Structures are given as C-alpha cells and as structure tokens.
C-alpha cells in the first residue's frame, strides 16, 4: 500500500478591532458593501485574538469546520463566500501550473478558537473571518485582495486584516472591488495609546449587528443623513487626529461618533437600545473625569452591546482604573477583575473622589481588559500551537 500523503496545514492568528468611525448599514447584503466608510483601531493579540488552523489532505472527504471545539455547518453562506473567493484567487494566480502548490481539489478542514471571553462582546466575527481568510490564503498561496474576501465574511473583518489604524473605504462599484481596507498608520505610530475593555454585566442578548443595521437602513432617516453628510468629513478628521496623535480631538470625535451610531439605533423603528444603565454611567463618569481635568483624558466607544471600550494614554491608565474601581467596586464573581497589561494601584485624592458623579454601583463592571494597538494577522510556526492533529481532527483542548 502506498504511504499516505501527510496533510498540509497552516496555523495563523488574527486580531479584533474597535471602530472609532462606525460602520452601520449595507447597500449590498450579499457582497457586504457598506453605506459609509469606517475607521478602526486594531487591538493587540497578546490580549485578544483568534487562532485558526486550516489543513488539506487527499484523504478528506468533505470541507469541515470546528469553532471553539464544536463542529459547525460548513454550508453557512458567508463561510462559503470566503472559501469560494480564496479558491478562485488561488486558481487565478496559478493559471494552470500547479507546481508544488497544494491541489485545489482537495477538501479542507478548519479549526478556530477565540481566546477572548464571548461575554467581552467584542466583534469575534471580525477576528474570526480575518483569521479564516488569512489562514486559507497562506495555505493556497494567495497574497492580494484579502480584505475584499474577509469583508464577505463580516464587514468589520476587512479592517482586522491590518494592524494599527485602519480605514475601510466604502467604495462605489457594484462588484465591491473598491470596498477595501487600508492601513492609515502602523501599530508603532502611537505607542502611548491604551485601550481598556470594560466588560459590563449584560442582562440580555442584544440584536445582532447584521439584523440591527438592516432595520436601521430600512427605517432611520438619521442613518441616511449620517452616512451621506457626516461620515465623509469625520473620516478625514479622524485620519488627521491619528496622524498628528492629537488625543484631545481623537477622543472627542470617537465619543461623538459612538453617540451618533447609538442615536441612529434609537431612530430605528422599532428602536434598538444597545446601551444599558452601566453603559450610561460609564459615559457620565468619562465626562466628569474629563471635566475635572479640563481636557479629554479618556474617551469611550460602544459597539452593538453594553460593553465600553475606553481610549486613553499610558499616563492616565492607573488613575482611571482606580476611578472605575471606586465607582464600580469589583464583586467576587470568580473572574479576575484586571486582565491584560499590568495596572498599578493608586490612591485617589479626596478632590477627585468628590468630583465623581455617582454612588458606587458594586458589580456593574465584571472585569477590565487592558490592551493596546497591535499588529495584523500572523503565521504561527510552532507545531504545538496547531489546532488540528495529524488525523485532521481538532486536538483535544488541554
Ligand atoms: C457596531 O461587521 O459585525 O461593530 O457585516 O453584518 O457581519 P456584518 O456586521 P459587523 O458589524 C459591526 C458593527 C459595529 C461597528 C463597526 O465595527 O464598525
């Protein structure tokens, strides 16, 4: 019997991202073409990432996928769009000559895990699809047009194909060829910038981004106004704030854009409310803290859920975390309260304490992940980090 050809596999990681100019609304549901451009910050993979292994073998009978250890339907249309597009690009690139490259007719097995808590409410689909597309591209030797493919998995995923600060041009063409992501500045550009993810205790599952934005496009005139008349100017201004590392203007615009996005959700009919009481308390707290100092030292942004993402500079992290602990005293719920980059405890002055607006609200925030701006997707070389075993099935979780 001829020796079995071993499987060929690649393992990669990809980051999540948080938008400072929000994407909300599609002009084409199938190709995932947005009604406005958006801009985001890529978060560091040391704290939040997706890892994916993709393998092909002559012995595989069908394409299969496992997410966080559980087998999922490989026929999902967004997953199929990504697989089909990568295989198409691979075919185009090879144009007839297969050489040493992996045969396109072989079936693929894919395993993917998120190392961040689902409760963090962070766009896990962004990191997930970015990682899927990047890993398949490595496997099949495809290099270009990757953000265009990732976009077809989830809109925000196209921005996770790059590190640092990334814009997604809405584009104009009906085929989406110009609806792509591009780096505005690399991760090394603003080393003092810090990001705190405040995971609040959510009461219920919010409306998904995909269905929420569809209802907004159908019913909100504010969203139409935002997309046509507000976002173009904000994109240019945000790129300037980043280039000049102007935290004051960056923070203010980030907060205004988050607020306008949530205003369009409320203008949707029936209305969508992603923020909860804790989110609103965080908003007041940020404004009080900034008012106390007479400048923008911290800024919030919220996606389609109640968790806050705070931007600040390194010099402010310790004090602001102490402020959070003062207003939201941690409850022993089995979670470590501070995760990620180290934070030093500080004693707040009586003056700062008396400037804080509210009574303590124990347990309102479950935990904080402190992170920073990070790089784009990466290939992992270490064999022990592969998620599929030599039999092409997920390795047992250790
Ligand atoms: C509020 O990218 O999750 O996070 O394209 O339907 O997959 P689909 O939606 P998704 O929407 C993200 C919306 C947002 C804002 C943003 O990330 O820009």
UniProtKB/TrEMBL annotation:
GO molecular function: ATP binding; diphosphomevalonate decarboxylase activity; Hsp70 protein binding; protein homodimerization activity
InterPro entries, per database record: GHMP_kinase_C_sf, Mev_decarb, Mev_diP_decarb, MVD-like_N, Mvd1_C, Ribosomal_Su5_D2-typ_SF, Ribsml_uS5_D2-typ_fold_subgr
Pfam families per UniProt: MDD_C, MVD-like_N
Keyword ATP-binding: yes
Ranges where the Mvd1 C-terminal domain occurs: 195-380
Reactions performed catalytically: (R)-5-diphosphomevalonate + ATP = isopentenyl diphosphate + ADP + phosphate + CO2
SUPFAM superfamilies with a match to the protein in the record: GHMP Kinase, C-terminal domain, Ribosomal protein S5 domain 2-like
Keywords (A to Z) from UniProt: ATP-binding, Cholesterol biosynthesis, Cholesterol metabolism, Lipid biosynthesis, Lipid metabolism, Lyase, Nucleotide-binding, Steroid biosynthesis, Steroid metabolism, Sterol biosynthesis, Sterol metabolism
Pathway assigned in UniProt: Steroid biosynthesis; cholesterol biosynthesis
GO biological process: cholesterol biosynthetic process; isopentenyl diphosphate biosynthetic process, mevalonate pathway; positive regulation of cell population proliferation
GO annotations of cellular component type: cytosol
EC code: 4.1.1.33
Cytoplasm keyword on record: no
Residue ranges occupied by any Diphosphomevalonate decarboxylase-like N-terminal domain in the UniProt entry: 14-181
Coiled-coil residue spans: none
Purpose: Catalyzes the ATP dependent decarboxylation of (R)-5-diphosphomevalonate to form isopentenyl diphosphate (IPP). Functions in the mevalonate (MVA) pathway leading to isopentenyl diphosphate (IPP), a key precursor for the biosynthesis of isoprenoids and sterol synthesis.
Family that this chain belongs to: Belongs to the diphosphomevalonate decarboxylase family.
Matching NCBIfam families: mevDPdecarb
Protein name: Diphosphomevalonate decarboxylase
Organism (species): Monodelphis domestica (Gray short-tailed opossum)
